[in-house]
Specification:
The protein is of the alpha+beta class. 22% of the residues lie in helices and 34% in strands. The protein contains 3 helices and 12 strands, in the order ββββαββββαβαβββ. The strands form 3 sheets. The chain has a 6-stranded mixed sheet. It is globular and about 60 Å long.
């Protein structure tokens, strides 16, 4: 766990939480994307909402400051408009209104996005802000961890597909009687 040394903060603080099958990470950044706090803990699948709320609360307490918003990156079928996640098999989630539950618990706006899609957007944004080249208009980000999925940006737009499952490239059974 690290907390930023006494420094002048730029803009509101935001928390980002990356939920994975085995670990959950939280970072808090300021308006210049400086990491002021980070912590990693084993994912508690049995009480994920409480765990995330606790991690964000710990960060607030450690920094002595509030956060203006929380962003959650999580695998599974994510409906970012509703803030819900479904079919997150590596987390044992069939359906969870994660965003609304955390927003109520934390009292700040909370946003939920598919983890690989969030990473693809971040990657493109990094390329746009590093100043070394024009940002790519299309990006494919392959996430390999407890599960496998991808985030795709086409012509500058995040691609979700007709059923919002674009990028779910993990194991697919083609022949139920075939080799595992």
């Amino acid at each position: 766990m690290t907390a930023g040394a006494a420094q002048e903060l730029d803009g509101p603080l935001v928390a980002g939480v990356d939920v994975g099958g085995t670990k959950t990470s939280v970072v808090v950044t300021d308006g210049r994307d400086r990491i002021l706090y980070e912590h990693v803990a084993p994912t508690d699948q049995s009480s994920l909402v409480c765990q995330i709320a606790g991690l964000v609360s710990d960060a607030r307490r450690e920094l002595g400051q509030d956060v203006a918003a929380v962003g959650i990156a999580i695998p599974g079928y994510v409906d970012p408009d509703a803030g819900s996640v479904s079919m997150a098999v590596n987390l044992g989630i069939t359906h969870l209104p994660l965003g609304p539950l955390l927003q109520t618990e934390l009292g700040v706006p909370t946003f939920v996005e598919h983890d690989a899609r969030a990473a693809a957007v971040w990657l493109r944004e990094q390329a746009a802000t590093d100043g070394t080249a024009d940002p790519p208009t299309s990006v494919a980000f392959l996430a390999i961890g407890t599960g496998i999925s991808a985030g795709v940006i086409l012509d500058g737009q995040l691609f979700r597909g007709d059923n919002s499952l674009a990028g779910e490239v993990g194991h697919v059974v083609a022949d139920p009687d075939g080799l595992v």
